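Show me any protein, fold above all:
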Amino acid sequence: MVTQPVTSGVINSKLSAIGESSALHWVTVSSASGGTLMSVDVKPGDHVQAGAKLATLDSDTQQNALDKARLAAQDADASLARAKTLAASNSLSQTQLDAAQLAADNARLAVQAAQIALSQRTITTPVAGTVGLIQVTAGNLINAQTVITTVEDSSEILINFWVPERYSSQMTVGAPVDATSAALPGKTFAGTISAVDNKIDPASRTLQVQATLPNADGTIKSGMSFTVDMTFPGQTFAAVDPLSVQWSNNGAYVWKVENGKAVKGMVDIVQRNSDGVLVTGDVKPGDSVVTQGVLQLSDNMAVRLLDQAAAAGGGRQGQGQAPAASSAPRS
């Protein structure tokens, strides 16, 4: 019969997941109101600062409304001033003074509303970044919420990916990741986890995670798919040859060779791999377990190792065959 030493194996030490990238800061710029598009002031690829003007709508009506509101506010302020003078000489009641004050306040609010309406005729970007394709052209009549363009700040890239729930406890903000893309062969991008969702998706039993990659040179384009790799300490278990695992009514077991005797060791199977079975129980790395001839054994049966010279000769003939053991009852 043949024995093999128990080794060790590590599981849950590596993770590869597929994710999709997007710019960390981006916005779809739309018109807040409808009207005729008078001009588009940027072109694709331009870098703009937050608040920069991208396009303008016709604004004659809104400018006229603002001028009227200002005139009305001036008149209301003058009426309020007269009311205060009359009230000081007890020629005007408090109620009339309050009404004049309210009219002046409402007039100022009307000016602010007209200013807001006029400002909305200028389409600006709320974030800094690079301008994408322009979706409209000057001279067209557009509606509210019509998309003008997109602006992306791709100096940092966000990757969304999902991991099996068994890795959820190992997902921590700041943990390192390596990302590769088929679109950029030979390049590996180092980043860190920036956010972890607070719940497991019940349908897929996965957890959503976000990682951030630096992209100062703009190599990564938003929308690229990535393979995200992570490493962990993992869990270490004893690993035995698949041929050594036997079954009984009490569960799985292996035959160990201890002090020249066959000893049954009960085990629980953790994971089956192509090159070994990870187990817990009555075995540890370094133990010798029987892989061939297991049906001839019984508990505490004495076994005798073959002569070392013969074993060495057999090794030369068998090109590295494992050492053999012979079962022989001791007299």
User: Anything to note?
Assistant: The chain is about 20% helix and 45% strand.
